[in-house]
Design a protein that fits this description.
alpha/beta, binds NADP nicotinamide-adenine-dinucleotide phosphate, Rossmann fold
Amino acid sequence: MKQGIIIGASSGIGWELAVQLAAQGYQLGLMARRDGCLKKLADSLPGQHFVQVTDLVNAERAQADLTSLIEKMGDVELIVVNSGVGSMERLLDWEVERQMVDVNVRGFTAMSLTSMNHFVARGGGHLVGVSSVAAHLSGGISLTYNASKAYVSNYLEGMRSRALRSKLPITVTTVEPGFVETPMVQGRPPWMSSVEKATAQMVTAINKKKNHVFVTRRWRFVALLVDIMPRALIRRFV
Ligand SMILES: NC(=O)c1ccc[n+]([C@@H]2O[C@H](COP(=O)([O-])OP(=O)(O)OC[C@H]3O[C@@H](n4cnc5c(N)ncnc54)[C@H](OP(=O)(O)O)[C@@H]3O)[C@@H](O)[C@H]2O)c1
């Protein structure tokens, strides 16, 4: 039986990913802060699964939580670092921005490092990191969120070269979602995808061991456009 861990499984994309991977026969380790949500999810899935409460704000403690879950499960070959926070940044408020740095940057790095060290020791595996199309943006409306996701995408690119140099069968997949209907998104922004559709595309990319995927696929055009647009023009809109 294949074993995988989803960090940030208690709602939205992580929850749906658990549903779709369990349907493929995965035994899962489910991590996040909300114990009740994780237990409810585990109970609703076919098969037996593991729950591990963790808070990425305490990165060192979260590393210990992940290590203990890996040891408990036995032979984890897939780890998805999906936890993330995004807040409105109308004010330059350190309490709001610190949370994004703590979870999206420090927590993400700690989880990716522990995962990679596990795969090297195991002789192979698959690390999936959930970034965002926002990684391509640098707008003032959500400047810390955008910067944190640019960090995630860049970091995973670096991890991919480390994996190559290890000469081990280690895959690193970067997922860059556009708008997906989850508790994180307020209102109805354009091109909002259902969580089922976006996650299904993510699962296909995981199964095919892709390096990178936009979900949904149409967001690649937005990223491409943003990448070639002059910064001065972007500054006028975001
Ligand atoms: N929805 C979108 O449109 C969209 C677009 C681009 C990228 N993304 C990315 O997709 C990922 C999933 O987001 P979502 O849309 O599914 O939002 P969501 O429903 O709010 O899920 C966020 C997940 O992150 C976990 N999390 C938050 N803070 C945490 C912490 N301190 N420690 C551990 N886990 C924590 C949450 O669990 P607990 O609260 O239980 O801890 C939850 O499971 C995020 O990385 C987000 O940036 C989403």
